[in-house]
Fold these 4 entries.
Entry 1:
Amino acid sequence: MNFLQRAIKNVTRKLSKSILLLLTFFVIGNFVIVGLGISQASENAKIMTRQKMRAVVSYEIDYDAINEYINSLTDQDAIDEFYNNGYPNIKLSDVKPLLEDERVLTANALTTTQLYATEGSDFVHLGNQVEEDLSSQEMCYVDPDGNQVCEPYNQPTYFLKANYFPNMIEFQEGSYNIVDGRFYTQDEINDNVMVVLVSQALADLNGWRVGDVIDFYSSDPSSIEPGGYMGDMGITTEDITMSLEIIGIYTHNQAITPSSENFDWTYPYENPDNMLLMPGTSYAAHSLAQAEKSWDYYASQFPDDPYYTDPANRPTAETLGYIGNVTILLNDPLDVDSFVADYSDDIPEFMMINANNEEFERLSKPLDTISLFANFIVWLVVINAVVIITLVTALTLKTREYEIGVLLSIGASKLKIIGQFFVELAIVAVIGFTLSIFSGSLVAGKVGEVVLDYQITESGVAEENDYMIGYPSTSIWDTDYTTDITLDDLVGEYSVSISPLIIAEIYVVGLGIVLVSTLIPSLMIMRFNPKKILMNQN
Amino acid sequence: MAEILKLENINYSYIDGGFERQILKDLSYTFEDHKFYTILGPSGSGKTTLLSIISGLDTPKSGKIYYAGEDIEKMGLGKYRRNKISIVFQQYNLINYLTALENVLVAMSETDNKLPKNHKEVAYALLEKFGIVKTKADRMVNQLSGGEQQRVAIARSLASNVDLIFADEPTGNLDTATEKEIVGVFKELAHEYGKTVIVVTHSDSVSELSDQRLLLSDGILKDIS
């Protein structure tokens, strides 16, 4: 008849006390299960929705911070100086340390522009309204005298995406796939090698193969003819010609068809089939000749302008590579927040790392509130449970002094006596919590739904329009790499169920309550004097 | 006869109404094994205090107690109570949510002494020895009479296989017939089972049946056999 057996006998033979405690634990268990179930459902809904979102963060200029800074300036000269010299730009050297993080898969730091076909090259035609309208090859406008003037005009036919890193998010995610050749390497980026990847449709149309060298114009060739605005700057055909070796042919999943939105108004260069991919450094190096001649031209036109008299402002290959933002693709969507938190304090002033999850956060608010509320309930119930059970145990202890005295008189250790009390409570707690798992499972789902509906209505989230994060993904100039989500996405993932984890948590919470509740009575037992107990009894 | 319990200069006092009351004064005595002792004394003479001290429920202000030559304080009072002695109380002190059998089993599970493996059978046999048959042994203790409960308490005191048994007014709540019966049991324990039994009582009829009668008076033990 060791202390465990005594505990079992006490529980089974002191039934009224055991049933009262059982009911207490049962009620506590139900509250805890409902609370934990709802809290976990809220967290799961957020996690599962987050996992469906793309794991992208963007390194970009913090225009809000700039505006705030400029507004804080009172001296106009300081404002002018900021605009002329100090306006922040993204520097790749600042971004590169971020890309060494093991959570990063790849990044896009893109320079985008239009290119023009040379003799003998064709673009993939859509046969839409825009192509029909632009077939005149002239641009006409009305001059200040009211005369209509028409000038030769070449339609840009290709779109260039020039990345500064040897991969692209599109290839990493599989929306683009190389079918022949390869992507450009870091060495080719470092050495400004003139290489290009073309779409399979474009390669098939022109009969291009990997290894072919194709010429493209980086500016409208008509503009360098006499009278053209670039011709006056001394820019030549050679300056605007890029001879690019095809190193890769790729396919994409962004085909535009007659059923596509804005099909009729899509320009040829906006057709993804007409997209060229080359190293950003190579494009910047190519642009240098045009930029220098342009700078020299304006310097001669405005000799007194301090901007042109300062040689530091003369363009270089480095200053030409303008990057609007850098999009970083991470391994795991759940790493986004931690990545942003880890680096936000280490980047230069007026730069920011954007998790692009404002909409997600906004839509998640009802779930956050529910989770907070549910956790609060759990804590409240647990604290109350500890207080109630402690009081019950302490009161029970008073009525069991005699038994304790007897046990002490026969040499039972105080620890064993405490152990018996703990086991008695634990047995009842386990039974109570086990029963509450069944009832709690039934209640939690219903309560969860009611609470969510109420919270969505209260928060007003449903009445606000869901909007897309970032820019529309149809813009070829600035691709949106974020994911648009709706309240339905989040609510769809919200499902209150009692998982094995919650069941385990219930038992841990229960044993925790029992442990803490036994603590104070244990201190009382430790102070018990068997002689006093038994003498009083006698 | 060998010495089993030796009291050496035991002093015990407590503060009562601001005055120190000396209960035991340099008390020394040696108990021998296989004997049935009774300790008599008027109310308030300190009989129960003495029993508490020699049974390890309390400690003296000064002095030493040796069990078979070993200082019980060094041995540890818990260990002493668990393995060397057992106590029978006036109120029987049985655990009320256990059966008679289970009360005996409690003592068997707590002691570190070597016992036969079949605890249950031994406990039944022990109870039967003292008149508690199996059907009664399986009853809750509060369903037994006072005499029966005291027999259960005695059986429990024997269950842990100790050599020294103390009893504090064990017949105080019993009628004369049962008292005789219980005293007979104590004699039997001393003479047939080789135990040393020390009973604190105020009853001359109990005392007359003991091997050695001691009187606690003025804080010391006097042999009045």
Note: Chain B touches chain A at residues 48, 52, 55, 57-58, 78-83, 86-87, 89-91, 93-98, 102, 105-111, 140, 156, 160, 168-169 (CB under 8 Å).
Entry 2:
Amino acid sequence: MTEILRVENLKKSYDGFLAVNGVSFTVEQGELKALIGPNGAGKSTCFNMLMGQLKPTAGEVFLDGQKITRQKPREIWRKGVGRTFQITSTYQSMTVIENVQMALLSHHHRLFAIAPRAWKLYRDEALEFLRIVSMEDQADRSCSILAYGDLKRLELAIALAHRPRLLLMDEPTAGMAPTARVALMQLVADIVRTQGVSVLFTEHDMDVVFAHAHHIMVLNRGELIADGDATEVRNNPQVQEVYLGGGTLFKEAQDA
Amino acid sequence: MAFFFAQFLTGLANASSLFLVASGLSLIFGVTRIVNFAHGSFYMLGAFIGITLMQILPGAIGFWGAILLTGLAVGLIGAVVEMLVLRPIYRAPELFQLVATFGVILVIQDLALMTWGAEDRLGPRAPGLRGVWRIFGEPVPKYDIVIIAITPFILFALWYLIARTRAGILVRAATQDREMVGALGVNQAWLFTGVFALGSALAGWGGALQLPKGGADLLMDFNIIGAVFVVVVIGGMGSLPGAFIATVLISVLNVFGVTYLPQSTLVLMFVVMAVVLIIRPYGLLGREEVAGEHGQVGAPDMPIRPYGPVGQALVAALLLVLALLPVFADQFMLILMIDMIVFALFAASLHFILGTGGLVSFGHAAFFGGGAYAAALLVFHTDTPMELAFLFAPLAAGLLALAIGWFCIRLTGVYFAMLTLAFSQLVWSLAYQWRAVTRGDDGLVNIWPSDWLGETASYYYFTLILGVGGILFLRHVIHAPFGYALRAGRDSPRQAEAMGINVKRIQFAAFALAGAMAGLAGGIFVFSKGSVFPTELEIAASFDALIVVFLGGVKTLAGGVVGAGFMTVVEDWLTRLEYWRLLLGLVIIAVVIIAPEGIVGSIRTFWNRIRGSEEEAAK
Amino acid sequence: MTFTRRMILAAAAALTMAPAAVRAQDTIKIGEINHYKRMAAFAEPYKKGIELALKQINADGGVLGKPLEYIYRDDQGDPAEAVKIAEELMTRDGAVMLTGTILSHVGLALSSFAAEKGYLYLAAEPLADSLVWNSGNPNTFRLRASTWIQAAMLAEEAAKTDAVKYATIAPNYAYGQDAVAAFKENLKRLKPEVEFVAEQWPALFKIDAGAEVQAIERAKPDAIYNVTFGSDLAKFVREGGDRGLFDGRNVYGLLTGEPEYLDPLGDEAPEGWFVTGYPWYGFADGTPEKAFVDAYMAETGETPKIGSLVGYLDVLSVAAAIEKAGSTDTPALIAAFEGLEIPDTPIGPLTYRSLDNQSTMGAYVGTLALQDGKGVMVDWSYKGPDGYMPSDEEITAMRPAD
């Protein structure tokens, strides 16, 4: 397996408070990796630094050995990193398929074209991506009237349209019903398997994490306290301490 | 030294009335997010009501009592306006309310003319405060000293009201987060009415308090509104301490500007505003605006589609009618249609960045007038052939838009709007003051088309081809990838950036394109009228376009064009009547209330409701 | 869909909404364009002056046996709108010529338009010199005495004093700048040692009077030349009076004596200023000036303003030109206006100079004083424009070749 993402000693401080304190890890090709931790552990901060929304105080991020630290989100995207948002972010005034076409227009460097009709471009290609997330039958619906779970799947299709090598998903199942969560994560796992893309995701739902992630990292107070497969993490005393102390669902997850 | 001090006092005295008015505007914006252009009208009402009351009430008690009562009266009027005009449209798209406030301006102008007559009124003197006190030997009017002394108390009273009373805490909470106030069980409608009344009352007090230093006249509403907005923006919209600091800053700078740079009076404050906004994009004490924070975002836009066969056939039929118009219409009809097409193209170009791009520009006339001036300057000074000079209009306007956009595009929301306004004022003052080149207010005259376009009918065809062509071109661009990218940046800048779209660069290009198209309209305009004056660069010209875009419907593609057509016809018709401003104001208010999504948007909603289902609405 | 439908509706509305113009030729129609709302304080007396004259003329049988009629249209103070309305008045409403406007830039737009389309335009109140000089054309005539003429009258008076150091204050736009330039040029010609120590340019109707007064005071001028008017003037006079700016200084005020600007000042009218204006209260019984004032007050119940006089003279000029032309077609009217002489008007004989299409209406000059708590002009005199204009050669050189 080759390494896709390498994070070295990443730090972020706000007025002296260290939100992320020297986090280092790697993501391998074709890996589905979870980043978990209690509220305020620094997961989102970490994610936003990887994606360029936040500038790290210190540390480096490498994609395929290439440094991408402190680059803008759109530059990181160009290098092959896709993302989905904790709160879905789609183009409400467009149809489902146009949302995907938009990503394709960007992918094919056609953003400044003024001659063609946008909705005619890359329609078949966009349909392919909708098919992957089983949204093809809703292609021409207005994005503004979609159910929340469908929006999540649409976001996934948008992210896939750029054929990313790495996909960052911030709480992909947040706000969804339990059955829908399982379905979505199943879909993600399938995509990892069939498309050869690596996925790094954060998640609250331990069922989801332990059922699907190949590897799990645990973040607490800005520091990585565990990085391994499900069993390793489950048996890590520090992790147990954090989660039992926090009174979370960890116990249930263990039972599952 | 004494001279400096005396000047400083003059600046402070000027600041006190301005601060009252500005704090009212800031308060209203902070809580209700309404950009209230009618605020100057409440100031004017304060002056007129103040004079009337001072004539009734005698003596010093009468004078100060009259000022107090004036504020209450104007506050009451403000409450009525809020309940009748604004309350029905809080759910409309953001900034839509400013159209309604524009209607209010027109109504109040004519009502004031009916009530108080046309003649200027000199303000009564404050009893016992005529004349000067000498401070370090310099004469300072007694009344100046008194209002300088009063202002801190007003500031304190406001601070106390906002920071220490329950009502004030609610107001502050609403400024931070309006949803929360609703959650606290407070009736939001009445809170808004109360704040609007208080803001209006402050404007009324401002108008009454300045009486001994000036008077009341029918132009004072427009004459103060620019300064008030500048102050509120420099201070940071919604921030009272910011408004206070900015008022003092602007007033004192003005006084020194008058002494050391007497020619600067037109632009000084706009230069200050531009500099402040470039350095601090949210004013001195303002905070960043979060997208959609304006609350009334309204329903999301519909997906767009080019017309189907039926629509295309109808457009073709309309174009055919327009093409045949010279056969059956008289000369004036053609002139009216030329005006309408020029205005429609101008509005469409604004609509392009406003509707599709989500960038509210308050200074779009800079490009319309800029294009007109570019062509006219070439003809006037170098006798350039009309055809060549005409080409220069969109080109120069586009370049101007590139230059202005470079500064503005990094800002968002109301601050973006105000910076465009500041730059358009700079362009205006250039045309107004650089007389050697522009002839200033005398304008550039005798800018007529070449002989082959000299006939009204041939110029009509010229306008039809280029004007309608420009509108169709913009429409085409909206449907093209570029238009989609622009819309993507408006819908979700976060997602757009995360999919490789350089949102600011797209907006920058769109701003330049819109500027060039406005310049094209300006080019057609100048050769149809034969002259151009700084009037075309005024704030009012920018707002004309803004208002028709909102009236037509921001969230529709045809909104700008339909709004422009509607306004041209209504205005042409109404200005024949005696109290046309009153009627026009009422028409605007009526349209705003009946059709809160704009004319086109409301017709579409109505049409969709008839046809029923949600899926239909999506098409 | 809706786009097309609305456009058709709008177009259809536009086609049908214009009231079917009454084209009956039973009256002679004059298109009168003005800023009735935006400049209401000035336009209203002007309109009343017109109506008085129309009433008198039509009572005497009108012109060419037909009643004379003015069609009033509001241009909102917008030159582009004025041009559009002018077209409608001429092509649809059957007007035989155009007149009106107060603001110079609107007048200039109409002038250029009239020349291009071959219409006749009589500018009533605009003061800009360029209207008949630099931008003059054969189709445009102007009634009122221009900025240059009135400034020259004040400069003549100023040159008689031993004041050397002058300060000027004028609104920051074309009129103010022209007025200052004209005053300076005339005064320097008459008295080369004069020096201008301060030039203040407040924004129109946005004067910061306290600061302006302080700035002038700081320059310690011997005399002051004022061009501000309206609300600016009121604030300037009040601040200047309070701060003693005018004490011991001669002040020359352009238009300051016109009732439009003087009346609102009430008992704070600045005594001792030498001004141009309109002393309607000072006319002797039996003079045509007095007869006009009496008729006007009887008709309207108001005291006349300068605008009233201009409106009245406007109608007299138009009527005389039509009578002289014997027809209402434009070339004949233009020919009639060139060198038109009207023997009896409230200000005596009035001529439209064929040299530059400017009428010989002059101006009243005098000194301000307080009487019964109101400002009035005393020791006034009426001066014709002769001697206050550039030479004929200079004017001819300025006018573009016809």
Note: Residues 110 and 256 of chain A are 48 Å apart (CA to CA).
Entry 3:
Amino acid sequence: MSKKTLIPIGPYHPLQEEPELFKLYCDGEIVKDIKWETGYNHRGIEKLSESKTYEQIFFLVERICGICSTSHPFAFANAVEEIAGIEVTDRTKYIRSIIGELERIHSHLLWVGLAGHFLGYNTVFMWAWKYREPVLDLFEMISGNRNSYAMFKVGGVRRDIEMAKIPVIQKVLDDLKKKADMLTGAVMDDPVIHARIRGVGILTKQDIIDYGAVGPTARASGVAIDVRKDDPYAAYPLVNWKVITAQAGDVFAKAEVRLLEIHESISIIEQCLDGLKKEKEGDIAVKVKEIPEGIGIGRAEAPRGEVFHFVKSDGSNSPVRHKIRAPSYVNIATFKKSCIGQTIADATISLAAVDPCYCCTERMAVAYDLNSGDKIMNANELINVSVRKTNEIRKEIKSQL
Amino acid sequence: MAVNLFYFLVFPGLLFAAITGAFLSWFDRKITAMVQFRKGPPLLQPFYDFFKLLLVKETILPKQGSPLIFLLAPVFSAFGATMAGVFILLPLSNIATGFRGDLLVIFYLLTIPSFSYIIGALASANPLAAVGSSREMKLIISYEFTFLLFIAGIIMKCGQQFDLYSIIQAQQTSSPFIGSISGVLLFIVGIFCIQAKLALVPFDMPEAETEITEGIFIEYSGAAFALIKLTKYIMFFILPALLIALLMNGFRFNGFNILWAVLKLLAVVLALTLIRNTNPRIKIRQAIKFFALWMNLFAVIALVLIEFGY
């Protein structure tokens, strides 16, 4: 007769600084059962979407998640363009793919850093996040924002990547290649990391199929599922790349897949930049008159897996139904397989290995001082700070040219 | 009596050891920051941390625990660390010679902080603290035997001398013990034991922030946590100092030797810092295996080598 202890991970916990609760039922150090509660941060985005116009919805779905903030507009654009039967220009396709892949790079670097932090290896955490920083600066140069880039609209993108910016992007990518090589080597060849995450949290191919897991979680178990190949969109059929898979299905394989995907993404961006040079500058959007009645399905491969958008239009300027399916929601179900029977130390890294994202970003417009009740900064002031910083970074990048 | 109290409270006990340890912990944090591309804290940050906890923060007591034991545990841990510090630092700074067998007393006193943490954590009735203290217990079981073998090696090396003063003298008259094969092996064993005693990565699983949110210390706050911080500062000084006394010639306080002493201390702390910054936290089972198999093997090889005079 054994008594089980409840070890709570969340709703506030240093493992995942996001509102979710994992209840580990433990016997000593061994996890016997796991239950989880999500939905602490439900915002009713699908319902909100029905009250907004198609142009506005891009900004709304971008705010579903702060890390993969392009994948939702990407999928939504695919869905709406399917309804209206719009064929976007090649330049648009390349720009969209570049943004998508840059996002994959920064998201994977973020995960590598966090995984290091979860293992108590803070050096990897700091290094990976330092290497991620130039990517965010690139976003700031291209779109004006480090996150939530506001690049997408129906039939095109909002901002062009001009000729002058291409060498800057290329230079950052060249630097990143060396750093990614170094980071990959540091993780792959470290015997202590091997001892720590090899054979931990194994998901078999059958588990992946049973639970319907997607993204790197699935690819690490040998399931070559990738929307970019399975249902090609944007510039992905125009460039040469391969789906990265690993067979082991453990945490190490997931790290391996993500690290190798960084290299693959760099290669995709380079090919897209070459393609961009051949296209006419400024040809970034087609004119869209109206969205006809009909249904559209849009899919996009987010860094965490497949993002799925279903849009039903009645011919007016806002959808009558908008359904969103995000990858983390299906991936966390695999914890039932990967965590039970492990020790707490292994279970926590298994939880982190699917890179669960809780659609976390909330927007703050006004900050109050708790003691005095004074308004510290209003929305305009925050925007001004952001604009000023953008200009500084632009100047800095220009001076480095 | 008065002089003993002075030894305990001011030099080389509580005040001196804590202040030196605080500066060493700043050094550790600064090096860590440099390794991680960060700026690092200002020189007085350990003192700010300590006095904020002691004077500003309130002490919150767990409702279902046993408050008396919960609050006494940090006092005992600071007491044990200070006593060990006095016994280590008196012979080391050439003030008193100590007594025959004081090495074993030091060995016992050095375990008091760990045991106090366990008792305090269990008294807090927190499930995460319980997991943390069970890990700390397993960790103690695994490294204490290795540490004993390490001390046995030193005793054999200087011809069955059981007191620290004779060991330091033996090295100062001939050569430091680290200058031989067995000495190097003992140094490796010793530094990993210290790493585990200080609960630094890769042996920080009793605290493991991202798993069990500081584990054994989760319920501590305010003045009680300040005492734990104090213990940590003291341990961060006296354990490297013990290693230097046992293997690296001790300290001498004349002329350039003062600089040499500081450099030796910083070098040992640097080794600890670099180990903690280039490794992930291992699992408790792996830690037990690491000490029970590899470190004990190293120690036994060192003992055999000493027997044959290497």
Note: The two ends of chain B are 44 Å apart (CA to CA).
Entry 4:
Amino acid sequence: MSASNAAHSVVEPSTSARRFAGLLVILYAIITMVPLVWIVLTSFKSPDDAISYPPKVLFKPSLEGYCNVFTTRSRQTPEFFQTLGPPQGLCDNIARSRNMVVAGPSNYVPRFINSLIIAFGSTALAVALGTLAAYGFSRFRVPLKDDLLFFILSTRMMPPIALAIPIYLMYRTVGLSDTRLGMILLYTSVNVSLAVWLLKGFIDEIPREYEEAAMIDGYTRFQAFVKVVLPQATTGIAATAIFCLIFAWNEYAFAVLLTSGNAQTAPPFIPIIIGEGGQDWPAVAAGTTIFLVPIVVFTVLLRKHLLRGITFGAVRK
Amino acid sequence: MAQIRVEALNKSFGEFHAVKDASFTVDDGQFLCLLGPSGCGKTTTLRMIAGLELPTSGTIRLGGDDVTMNRASARDIAFVFQLFALYPHMNVRRNIGFPLKCEGIGAAECDRRVVEAARILRISHLLDRSVSTLTGGDRQRVALGRAIVRKPKCFLMDEPLGALDTEMREAMIHELRALHERLGATTVYVTHDQLEAMAMADMIAVMNNGVVEQVASPRDIYDRPASLFVADFIGSPPMNFLPFRGSLEAGAQTIRLGEREVAVPAAREALAESDLVLGVRPEHVRFTDRGMVRGEVYGSEYLGTTQIVTVTTRYGALKARSPASISFRTGESVGLDFRPDTLSIFDKGSGRAIRTALHEGGAHG
């Protein structure tokens, strides 16, 4: 139906309404993108540009922030520099221009690896447990089902940090303090309630006739679950995994309290990157920018599922 | 193929007693319809035969073996679901072959039987299509294909035509009946649609509130209903009910309805004075000026060859089927007569049909 047509459609928005909606979405996207753009720009600034006021939008890009986040440096006397050979690579070059030498790698990489192991480990565990529990709640007559489901949800009602002290004491006693396993278990326990509720919605939508047909045709219930239910629940599992991963990846409060030298993740590490004379903002920004990459990649890989996942329940097949 | 025997089957879900003492037998090669309104326990009964629910008490025998507590996969049955339950991630060929794959039958044999099943159902041209591109009727044919490919002991079908539109349903009723005649498979078919049941079944078991009210041939269900519920549920429009108070002696051939004597099939049991109900099918009501019940024409529904005339009487609104050629004026005073040999008498309290000569005229006819 053309826009010039006098009769307007009830279900199709008019062209002007659609343009207005598009404009709103773009505006909103710009507003939410500002902090992100700020961080990425800052990561390419020199320390002086980073703290200049008013903020510079145009500046001479520098990789100093990226060098600083991966290295530790030490200030040296001019006499010492004369004993050195030519600079070893880009970062050494930048360091020497500030009368410093690269002393060694920073802790960023091990912290980042901790983050990867803990976030993906707890996500996998939460989704696996959540899928099984959600299937059980969805398909069986569980005694006190509603109360149990409410109980599972209620674990999310309290701010997690309210539990920090008891968990800290417990972890110290059982030796889980500052271990990767401890953090995986902690994030799993927080995420599993979200996973159960989200996945129950998805599994409820899969007609139980599918697995009943498979059971009559000769499968056991577990085989039917693996071969029939799981392939159809992939969308829900992917969406749930993203939500769980984002939580575990970004978690800060517990990480600060419970980890230090051994199992510390990237979020508590990044803000305390100290340069000469205070906070090294380009290095902090560079650490944050790199930190965003895995989540972006994971989300882009699963975006097809995520889109249907967010609108789940809205459309009956 | 095998006989199915259901004995004193009960199923409770907590407080709710879904199936109460259900007993019936489906003979080898017979087509039995479980018929009843929604929530009457017919699907639960079917699911217990399939092994998808376990009964609270009672026995289920398949070909003589007690399978009451056996796992569904150990019963060698095929189940056709209302929503088809085709696997969306497989094409038609793999859907039909799925039960064979579960049994670990070789690829060549599996393929031969899939092609054979597809030929019987005339869906050979669809074998490599994805099931999501099929129409409702074709999806149901694929679901049937998955059932027949394995040559099971019996077929269980849960409202398989419920999701189809009227036209497709009509066609599938004939196809299903033809398929049954060809395979001679013992079949239990659940439906709430009496037309489906009447058109396909050898035997119908009518259920209400978890109780099997009557198990009989479609003709017996219609002509000799065993209870008020069956008489009311079967037939469109349903049987007319005229409440009256009276007693019956064995052999009595009339009842007293108001001031008039009404001829009925000879009673085969005696009954003290109690509240009774006279049941008359609309097609057994005749218009005559000297009729035993008088009333006023309230309106008529034109159905092509016949019409349903509603007459208000002192016994309530009665419906009569009459040729469409006769015209009635609204408000016209008419007399009604009933065909004596077809009348049913029920005990109002229990809903049970009183035994009369009606039940002797070929009870298995």
Note: The longest strand of chain B covers residues 16-26.
